[in-house]
Each structure stands twice: as C-alpha cells, then as structure tokens.
Target: Acetylornithine aminotransferase
Amino acid sequence: MDWFELEKEYLIPFYKRQRVVFVRGEGCWLYDENGKKYLDLVAGIACVAIGHSHPHFIKRVEEQLKKLVHVSNLFYTTPQIELAMKLREISGMDKFFFCNSGTEAVECALKISRKVTGRKKFVALKGAFHGRTMGSLSVTWKEKFRKPFEPLIKPVEFVEPNNIHDLEKKVDDETACVILEPIQGEAGVYPLDEGFIKAVFEERDEHHFIVIFDEVQTGFGRTGKWFAKDHYGVKPDVIAMAKAMGSGFPIGGVGVTNEVAKKLEATEHASTFGGNPLACTASLATIEIIEKEKLVENAGKVGSYFRERLSELSEEVRGLGLMIGAKFENAFEIVRRGFDEGLVLNATSEDNLRFVPPLVIGKEEVDYAVEKLGSILRTLT
Model:
C-alpha cells in the first residue's frame, strides 16, 4: 500500500513529512513498515520521555482504559486530583488546570494573565514559539507563522532575548504578562541568561504583571531538572506544560501560584476532554517511571556526555540535559541522510540540529548516534 499517495489524497497538507512510515517503537528505537530499525533522537518532539512501549506505562493505561475513560469535568474523578497532588510535589506550583496540548496550555495562561491583571498587553521574546492557536500564535515570533492569520491578538511587544535594556523599554504598567521559554526550543535550543531571568522578575515586582514560563518542551526532566525554572531558582506565576507530561499521550496543563488562583473563578475557562481519567493516568504513569528509573538524573548525566561527544563534530553545541542544539551546515540534508544511517533527527533551521531523545537513552546509544552522524558528515565533505 502506498501510504504517501494515500496521505496526499485524504489529509489536509499542513505537514511536510519525512518519507518513512513508523509502525512500532521500543525504548529509544523505532521500526518502519519494512522492519528497519532507527535510533530516535526526536522522541515525538520531546514528548516520549520514558521511551516507546514502556511496560509499566502500558499496564497503567490499560487498567484505566478498562475502568473509565471520560465523564467530563462536570464530575470528580480520582486520577485528576492525584495528578494535581503529584504535580504540586514535583513542580512547586500550587494549583492546576488540565487541557490537551501545549498550545491550549499557553492559551489558558494568556487568558489568566489578562483576568488577573485586568490589562491587555502581552510581552514575548524574539525567537519565541508558543503554539498556533490565535492567542499562542500572537506571541510567537516567526512572521511566516503569524502573517497568514493576521490580525491577531494585540497589543504584543517582542523583546530581544537576554537584552535587559530592551526588556525595560517594553514592559510597563499596561503589561499583562511576560511569557518566555527558559530555553527557546524551536529557535534552535538557546537557554536564557540567569541575569535576564532575574531582570524579568525585578520588572514584575515593579510593574505587577504575570510571569509565564512556557515549559511545554522543557518540563518533566528534559533539562536535568523536573522543570527548567529550577535551573534559575525562580517560581513563575504561571507555568504551561505538555509534551512529556503524558509521554506521547495528549495532555497539557497549567500550574499557578495560590496568589493567582484566588483571583480566578468557575466558568472562566474550561476543557471538555482536559484532565480526563485516561490522560491523567498516562501522566501519573509517566511520572512514576521517571522517578523510579531516575530519568531526571539520567537526562543531566547523559545529556552532558552527549554534548561533549557532539562537540567533536560541531563548533557550537548548546542546551541543558537532553535538550540540545548544535550547529551543522546542511542540516536538512543531514536529517534526510539520517534515515539511511538509521537515525531519526530534527533540524530547526538550515544550520541547526535539535536533539531531544527519550530520557532513557544511554551512553551506548549516544556513541552510536555520534558515529552515524560522523559518517553522514563525511559524505557531505
């Protein structure tokens, strides 16, 4: 069966896909329809934290599937409350709302900032990517994403990352929030400076806006801490989370402080499917595995090793934990040739590769990846 032609016939052409059909996964490895094996260095774009087909994850989700999938948020369900309790423990945030994706989490966070402050202006960073719904798209930097859908939500100001002077010029007493990714993922994996983060919170104390951390890509152990905010020693007013939260199962969430939560009321936001028993169980199972197998620590240790090995091939390697960006010319061609070598890679631009593998990856797989990547580079010279 020609799946490529069927896709053209039946699906809206929103995606530029790689020409491979994956049918199975195990740990850090994927298998295509012909049985070929690939090392997965993308993990569903930083989603599949615990690796593919983890037995405990399957067991927990299967058990919940047999009991209860969905009843809506008109009623109480135990997995939702259990997940909120666990998230308070690992994130340090106080109260939570559940949705289905990262862009929904950002949308909710933006609405919260307007409700809590009574103001309209959003401040985001140049290079930012926060999603593709109308609100999240409004605070996304790249013009090619925004322009076809204008007019978007206004007012929005964009600040140069790590430029404190630019920040001071653009935040004021009309600002509802500053939203930022502690590590800009889609821009190529660029961590923000500690001094800049500190300045954001100092400006918050002066102008009384909301600080939103978009931890959709950086959360749940990806950077070697449970959340990237922990590298900076700060507590945002709001955190948006998703991706690895369910290790591939669709779930997102928003965490807020008690100070923010007390200014919110019933009916001001909602989600039909958000926080349903199956999704929350998938998230609980993910957290259980991350804790039991010490995957936060593994991300820090193996991520450091991965960056060291990549430095043998690239003059510029960035990131924290297992969220890594590296400069490589002809990055899109490297991705294409990666499939021949049994590597699943991701390019964020013509000269940058992003590495966000499952958190279960070990040094042996890293060595395999670097050897294969080196082989690809030799064919390009």
Summary: The longest helix spans residues 363-380. The chain has a mean pLDDT of 97.
